[in-house]
Amino acid sequence: MTQDRMNKKQASILEAARDLIAENGFHASPAAQIAEKAGVGVGTMYRYFENKDALVYEVHKEIEFRLHSQVFQDDDSLPVRERFIRIYTRLFNYLIQHPNDYKFLEQFYNSPYGIKKRREEPLGNTKYDLLKKLFVYAKSQQIIKDIHEDILFGLCFGPISFLLKDHLRGFFDLNEDSIQMIVEALWDAIKR
Amino acid sequence: MTQDRMNKKQASILEAARDLIAENGFHASPAAQIAEKAGVGVGTMYRYFENKDALVYEVHKEIEFRLHSQVFQDDDSLPVRERFIRIYTRLFNYLIQHPNDYKFLEQFYNSPYGIKKRREEPLGNTKYDLLKKLFVYAKSQQIIKDIHEDILFGLCFGPISFLLKDHLRGFFDLNEDSIQMIVEALWDAIKR
DNA sequence: CGGGTCGGAATGAACATTCATTCCGAAAAC
DNA sequence: GTTTTCGGAATGAATGTTCATTCCGACCCG
């Protein structure tokens, strides 16, 4: 699944698709343009991916894989607040440093693609399991507010998503200090 | 600008466009379908709106007008916390009760339409002026954290936007109690 | 050579937009 | 009061464009 195991061509198609879709959205990313950017013929693209949908889902899978391996780690010997701050800071930084991964995901989850995906995947969404478990634990210890985990997640991820968008559009700039202040504010929102 | 001043036909086109775009997105809302839903001929639509873009901008203007008149009011004799909670609760409730307005706005601001719009409109975006001013005042009084207003806004509106999406997709349910808890958590995030 | 891989022209479906025509109500003519 | 005329409003079939997908000849490696 990772690029190591993949054909060069396949990888470059995935990358081109991600970048084009991140910048222009699904509608403004014609197959011909993706192929061109990837440096392959249109027909070739269809040798590697059954159709455009399959390609889109594959891009998504790749990004989730990277997120999972680079962001979602936890060390449960630390205090909860510390664990929270580390994970969210890492997530925030990853997305800032990989804007096209973020932009793609944003498009994906706000399109029929992502909605379908989320409906199919049972609640125990592996990727967010870690975050959910941390919330459940912290609630049981009375460290954070007694609110449904999904809502807690929204309280924390909502601002990240929103602010990232404006940052990437150049409406303002997120530096290291702002990131720390923001993540701490997120903690203040959920802590008891 | 309000529907009173408008032609019945124009209003029904705007409404049809909003609903279709809210549900299916811009790309999956062909002119023919909008016209059909509005109960007019396609050609008629083009009598009222120069092209699809103009129609989209007009829908946006209508929604902003409603938001402005029904949500963005303030009473500066109240304590800041109260003012904050009231405005955000009203905003949250309005969007829950007018899901298609919300869904349209979401699509709009995450598309080239909205990005263009925001770039053109100078910072003093009239609609959010009220919120921005409240933040500036509260900061000057040391009531809330000393963070740039745009970031404060993201901290507060991010969760609303995120949670609303999941609520409307039926992933969970936002009742009056959750709304109150959420808005209070938003306050905790920004208060000193 | 022959099996597999490429590329990009060709195809057909879906779409936004246009425009020649129809429709309708109100005014003019009688 | 009735018929005729008229002009703007409404219509949807026709047009041109853009796309996803297919197809087939060329190419490469064994």
Give the topology.
The structure is a homodimer of 192-residue chains.
Chain A: H1 8-24, H2 31-38, H3 42-48, H4 52-70, H5 80-97, H6 99-109, H7 112-120, H8 126-140, H9 149-168, H10 176-190
Helix pairs in contact in A: 1-2, 1-4, 1-6, 5-6, 5-9, 5-10, 6-7, 8-9, 9-10
The structure holds a DNA duplex (30 and 30 nucleotides).
Describe this structure in words.
The first copy, chain A, is mainly alpha-helical and 192 residues long. Chain A folds into two domains: 1-70, Orthogonal Bundle (Arc Repressor Mutant, subunit A); 73-192, Tetracycline Repressor, domain 2 (Orthogonal Bundle), CATH 1.10.357.10. Helix content of chain A is 72%, strand content 0%. Chain A contains ten helices and no strands. Chain A has helices at residues 8-24, 31-38, 42-48, 52-70, 80-97, 99-109, 112-120, 126-140, 149-168, 176-190. In chain A, helix 1 packs across helix 4 (52-70) and helix 6 (99-109) packs across helix 7 (112-120). The longest helix of chain A is centred in the last third of the chain and has 20 residues, at 149-168. Chain A is elongated. Chain A starts with 7 loop residues before the first helix and ends with a helix. Chain A binds chain B through residues 25-27, 106-107, 110-112, 115, 118, 145, 147-148, 150-151, 154-155, 157-163, 165-166, 169, 171-172, 178, 181-182, 185-186, 188-191, and chain B through 25-27, 106-107, 110-112, 115, 118, 145, 147-148, 150-151, 154-155, 157-163, 165-166, 169, 171-172, 178, 181-182, 185-186, 188-191. The structure holds a DNA duplex (30 and 30 nucleotides).
